[in-house]
Amino acid sequence: MKLHGEASIPLLIHCHATKSVSSREPAPGIVVLTAETAPALARDLEAALGGLWPVTVRPADAVAVAGLAAAAAAVVLVERPAGGRAGELLAELGRREPGLPVVIAAGEAAPDELARLLDAGAADFVVHPFRPCDLQARLLRLLGGRPPDPLVGRLKAKLGLRRLVGRSEAFTRAVERIEPLAACDANVLITGETGTGKEVFARAIHHLGRRADRPFVPVNCGAIPTELVENELFGHAAEAFTGAAQARRGLIREAEGGTLFLDEIDALHTAAQVKLLRFLQEKEYRALGSTEARRADLRLIAATNADVDAEVERGRLRRDLYYRLNVLPLALPPLRQRAEDVLLLAQHFLARHAAELERPRPALVPAARQALLEHDWPGNVRELEHVMERALLLAGPAARIERSAILLPARPGGERPPASFKQAKSEAVARFERRYLERLLLAWEGNISRAARAAGKNRRAFFELIRRHGIDARRFREATPSAAPAPAGRPGVIL
């Protein structure tokens, strides 16, 4: 869940500032790999790319294709694709840099030759003469409509975070928050649904900060039994309790000088939250059975997949602890808000798992791509990865992944995917109307007349709407705690 007003919260915190990325790191460029000797074609291609990106031209040998993690895209230049070298390069790039967009630039090519390269994993192609507008438009489309963000390239180059894959606006906004959060030592609270990559972002914040050369210690709070939380965090002295023959360093001591990442922070029992709060306030702790107080020098990053506001209201997350943790908030978007990243991530996971199995990356047929785009992905990026791994195994050595290999959970009520724009629009309108009517009836305790007035509709038209959607207004009155029971012997009356 997003925190209310997150975008408007100014970062008015005294930080150990670092210089901006753009002031010290060049933007990721385009690498041209020449598969054959074609100096004239290479010059034309370099001229067509100039103006938007730095361009590097290299011979396409094994050394040249290594170390491309910071590149925005690669262009493989061949005089004619029929020789097979272009396909070999695509396979090698797919193994070394999964997710890196690769464009084929050919001196001349037949349609069937280009089709084979697209099936082998090429993102696009262009044929000589290389017109700047054609080539730049293709690369801008692949890179999200704008020159690449230097921060993403730096993260990939420095950290090897190949799971930071995406070009959607929602994802880019989250990535752009990483460097300002890394520039200081204030506590960070990362919120997002399960599978959105909270630990990946926490590691990025750590590795871009001044503590990058110190430990990053991840802890799943939901996996620690309540009675062991204090021992896990603070450690214990020798003979502190029966069976404690030796002293044990806690996780806080393990993270000394670095970053402690507490995932599922809302899973901590209230008593454990009190101890954690005291540690955050004092920056001191004592191991169990020890009289010596130790000061800790570390940064704390916490994460949760829960609605933190609701958890605070229910009392499951202490309000004072929440305020201590939520100094710098970072909300990660779910995959359903990153529709343009779905196919990019799918290709990335296919390339990675195909490389592990030492087989070429298969192509997704249009029906399979459509199925991926129509799914809501409640499990987010993690669910997509599992679906693609399963599809690759089901496809076996086949060069294509058919729709039948994309196994997705059944839609609620056996709902089938929309077959046309008209049907999709009709279903979306119906879902909106039903949600709107149910929320309005709940707000007005099932009173149809008042709900109709709030909606700006006459009572008859409003009643016809709820009848069409099969909504029983009485259940909203019964579900409202404040509703008074009807007198004995008389049914409840809804006006």
What does it look like?
The protein is of the alpha/beta class and 495 residues long. It folds into four domains: 115 residues, Rossmann fold (3-Layer(aba) Sandwich); 173 residues, Rossmann fold, CATH 3.40.50; 78 residues, Helicase, Ruva Protein, domain 3, CATH 1.10.8; 52 residues. It is 41% helix and 13% strand. The protein contains 21 helices and 16 strands. A five-stranded parallel sheet has the order 2-1-3-4-5, sandwiched between helices. The chain starts with 20 loop residues before the first helix and ends in a 17-residue tail after the last helix. The N terminus and C terminus are likely disordered.
What Rg, in angstroms, do the CA atoms define?
28 Å
End-to-end C-alpha gap: 37 Å
* CATH architecture level-2 label of the largest domain: 3-Layer(aba) Sandwich
CATH fold group of the largest domain: Rossmann fold
Mean pLDDT across residues: 78
How many helices does DSSP assign? 21
Shape: globular
List the helices and strands and how they pair.
Layout: H1 21-24, E1 30-34, H2 39-49, E2 55-59, E3 73-78, H3 85-96, E4 102-106, H4 111-119, E5 124-127, H5 132-142, H6 150-159, H7 169-176, H8 178-182, E6 188-191, H9 198-208, E7 216-220, H10 229-234, E8 235-236, E9 248-249, H11 251-254, E10 259-263, H12 270-282, E11 284-286, E12 293-295, E13 299-304, H13 308-314, H14 319-325, E14 328-331, H15 342-356, E15 363-364, H16 366-374, H17 380-395, E16 400-401, H18 421-443, H19 448-455, H20 459-468, H21 474-478
Parallel strand pairs: 1-2, 1-3, 3-4, 4-5, 6-13, 6-14, 7-10, 10-13, 15-16
Antiparallel strand pairs: 8-9, 11-12
Helix pairs in contact: 2-5, 15-17, 18-19, 19-20
